Structure formats: structure tokens, C-alpha cells
Prior knowledge:
Layout: E1 19-21, E2 24-26, H1 39-58, H2 61-79, E3 86-90, H3 96-105, E4 110-115, H4 118-130, E5 136-140, E6 153-159, H5 168-177, E7 179-190, H6 197-210, H7 230-237, E8 241-254, H8 257-267, H9 269-274, H10 280-294, E9 298-299, E10 302-315
Helix pairs in contact: 1-4, 1-8, 2-3, 6-10
Amino acid sequence: MQWVDCAPSHTLRRPSGGTLVGRHLVHYRPGMADESFDPSVYKRTTREQWDASGAGYDAWGATIQSMIRPSAEHMMDAMGIEKGSSVLELACGSGAFTQLLAERVGIDGRIVATDLSPGMVALAGANADRAGLTQVDVREMDGEALEFDEQRFDAVISSLGLMFFPDPESSLRSQARVLAPGGRVGAIVISGPAANPFFSVPAQIIGARAGIAPPAPGMPGPFALGAPGQLASLFEAAGLSNVAAQTIPATIRLESVDEHLRFLKDAFGALHMLMRSMSDDEKAETWGAVAEALAVYQGPDGFVSPAELIVCTGAVD
Length: 317
């Protein structure tokens, strides 16, 4: 995978500092990035980073919810999630998608929302309590190690999470095992970088200036499952049937480029990881370059950037 070439070019220094994998910076050795990747270290680092930055992410819950809502509605319709359904959610974050699920299943439904980060679990639980969502139970859990023996669900879903799993196929197999007969699995991921400049343009500029290589193919990351047909093939490899995938247009709408920069700084810990070796002056210059590149999306209606998500669903026989 390469950062999309849709922003002003910058000199790419030799990536001697590391490779960004999702929210984890993997030590880089030329030609050996994959061998240096340790899933347990990655998960620990991811947990720590989200524990530290979850409140910033949560502050932008309404923006994230607005972006994912069309895809969420499409996925819930395709999966037959309705009043009274029981749903397991993986990588719930602070609960933006959880709240949309709760609207769909109603007070007679049941949602078990899980996340690897105890900080995120605390935020999601507080948000559910504040909204009076008594049908929501929030738990700390690794999405690749589901802790359910006899319990079964009508559906298992993840929104903007599966692409960050080190072994998404293994997770999908585990998801299928906790489904009731006729149950369905669904996932929303980000498509390719060219269709998502709101994030790929900043990542390209920051990564180039920091001398950090993008994730290698097959490694977890924001665009790891965004290639055409990739997510559907993964569902099929995990043994799911009636697999269907569709790209859904999305939009990031904010008041200005400056507000979008605040969104990026608060909600995307990966960008801070890319910049961690920069001086304050270098960081300021880099954010200025990001703002300049994103100015094309500023207009009479504020900052409006296209985005694109992929929704995939499958069933157990």
C-alpha cells in the first residue's frame, strides 16, 4: 500500500525511523517490516494510545456518527437487524456506532459492545448510561479472542475496526462461532486512500516529512482492507456465505479547514505517532502544509471532503 499521491509533493526521507501500522509504529528494517511486527506489542501499544487519547476521539462523536450513518443504515438493513435483535459489536470505541445500533434494536434488543481499550470502554459505557441505553452492555475484550461460551447473537458487527486487527480472518471465524443459526456478520471499513483525502492527504504529508513508510501490504492500517474485492474475499475465506460488499459514499462536513485540523489532531492518534520525532517548529510547518493541501475542500458551505466506506456482510449456514 502507498500513501495516495493527491497532495503537494514533499521529499521522502529514507524511512529509517519506522513503519506506521494502524496506531502502532513498527521498527523498520529495509525489506523486513513484516518480520518486525509483533501482534502482542501492537495490541498493547494500541490499547495504551487509545486509553490516552480516547477523550479527544469521543469529543468528535457526532462528526464520526454523521460520516458512518449511511453505511450503518445500509449494513443494518442488509443484516436484518431490527427491534429485539441481539448484537455483538467489536471495536466499539466510545460508542458512536453503538448508539445507532441501540436506535435500531430498541429497548427489547440487546447489544454487547466491546473494545480492546479500557479507556474506550469507560467512555462508551458512560455515553450509553447518559443516553439511557439500558439495552447496552459494554465490556473490555480483544476482537480476536471472543470470550463467549454458550452465548449466541443474531449479528456481529464492527465499524471502522476490522482493518486494524492483526488477523482479521481469524476474528471473522470467531465471530461466526458466536452467531445463532441464521446469524450474520457485518463490517464497515475505509476504502482506498484516493477516495478518502480527509485522512490520506494528511497522512501522506506527515509521513513523508517524518520519514515514515506506510504500512506494508498485509499489515493492519486504515486502508488495509480497502482494495476492491478484498473484504469480500476475506469474508469468504473465513467460511461465511451469501457474502455481499458495497461501497457507500460518505462526507466529512466541518466549519473550516482549521476545524478539520482540530478533528485530525484529536481523533487520529496515528498522526501524532508519525510526528513524534519532530520538533515543535517542524510540527507547526507540517500542519501548515496539511492545511494548504486541504484548502481545496473549503468552500461556501465550509469544509466538505469526500470519503468512501465499504460495507460487507455474510452469513453462517
